[in-house]
Amino acid sequence: MRHLKQAFWLIILLPVFLWFLAEPAVFQSPSFFSLRKVIIQLTGIATLCYMSVAMVLALRPRWPEAWLGGLDKMYRLHKWLGITILLSAVIHWMWARGTKWAVDWGWITLSAGNGRGQEKKWGWLEHQICGEQAGSDNGVAVFFHNQHCFAETAGEWAFYAVVVLIMLALLKRIPYHRFLKTHRLLAICYLALGFHATTLMKDSYWLSPVGWLVTVLLVFGSLTAVIAMLGKIGAGRQAPGKITALHYFPGVKALEVEAEVHNWPGHKPGQFVFVTTDTAEGAHPYTLASSWQEEYPGITFIAKELGDHTALLRTKLHPGQSIRIEGPYGCFTFEDDRHCQIWIGGGIGITPFIARMKYLASIGKTQNWSTEQRIALFHSTADIDEEALDKLAQDASSAHVQLHTLIDARDGYLTGERIRATVPEWRAASIWFCGPVGFGEALKKDFAAHGFPVERHFHQELFAMR
Predict the structure, then answer these.
(1) The pTM is what?
(2) How many other β-carbons are positioned within 10 Å of the β-carbon of residue 335?
(3) Could you tell me whether strands 429-434 and 458-461 are parallel, antiparallel, or unpaired per DSSP bridges?
(4) Which residues have C-beta within 8 Å of that of residue 330, sequence separation ≥ 6?
(5) Roughly what angle, to the nearest 10 degrees, separates helices 186-200 and 176-184?
(6) Nearest to residue 196, comparing CAs of 92, 78, 101, 91?
(7) Distance between CA 330 and CA 74 in Å, rounded?
(8) 147-186, pLDDT tens digit by residue?
(9) CA distance 267 to 290
(10) Is the Cα dihedral 278, 279, 285, 288 positive or negative?
């Protein structure tokens, strides 16, 4: 999480800092309207840069995964940027349109040198946006100048669409498949906003560091937008598969799906994949519940009934059905050299630990693991399925993992105090948590309050793709 926050603030502050280098006299603006022009430039450039990075992250690139801590962290950064884009775009729009309204309502008065009379004050403000650079002899500049009014209109309507689409993305009540379809429209909005920014950005900026940054981000953002519009995100990391077996656990309302997969690069326990069982529904993320064995090219994932799509899977899926698998993703792979590991699985968050236990049982301890390493697994759940709990106990026994199962109604809630009492060497341990975000954050704060180095040794899977 430390790197995630660092990346976020770097993305937020870098374009602002570079813009100030290009506008060192911004606070010496002689009038409100002079200040307005440069603030519109700043907020427009910042919004475009944030949206460009968000577009690139939507491509699910592999290169930032290790530093940020996995694709789940990248999606969290993508969400933070979405909220920032919403705020900065609204500020940009208010400086552009709000000033015009303020003039019309008499809140701001134009001086004689600013306009052509009060009866034409709206037209003067439109001229400020559409006609700043008419005197240039450069052919390219003249072309873009002639597109100013069209670019302004395109940008305004794209802004309205972006606001609506981001708000829809933040509403968890919107079904996942509808979210995917509406969210893809942001690629079109991005191209419109890119044209808006390219046309209206101040000429002198292009030869400065802020202009270089905008150019690079526009190129990569536009390429990403085209890929998204064509539905090709992750296409190079997809493999065909076929369902071989299904098993439903009614007590926990979860479906275990086994599938054979071809041309799969392999995966580590704790990673996740995107699985497409219905092209109309789109790809859904699932944590893998199996280790990878080349001699048996198969994977297992567990789908918990959490929404309309997952609730119907057990009636829609059948052995022999073709599916498409993309991945693997994630860095929740249990790789460290700590003397002890504490695993905490809340509800369906137990899945990556099942995969790791199967891995340990199949090949034993890896070279990076001490044979004396102690592993304590805490499984906290509100639902009970005896068959599922029996399988979990068998996996733990085979992997020599100490299992502590807590049923909420019977045993109460799992707390940091209970974990520390059970694992006396907790200070020398690493903690791996997968489950409800609020639960994980509460445990993280509790351990931090007791001096545990959470930034280095508390690993939390943020399994939320929106």
Answers:
(1) 0.85
(2) 13
(3) parallel
(4) 65, 70, 71, 72, 270, 271, 272, 287, 461
(5) 30
(6) 92
(7) 10
(8) 778 888 888 999 999 999 999 888 877 877 788 888 889 9
(9) 9
(10) positive
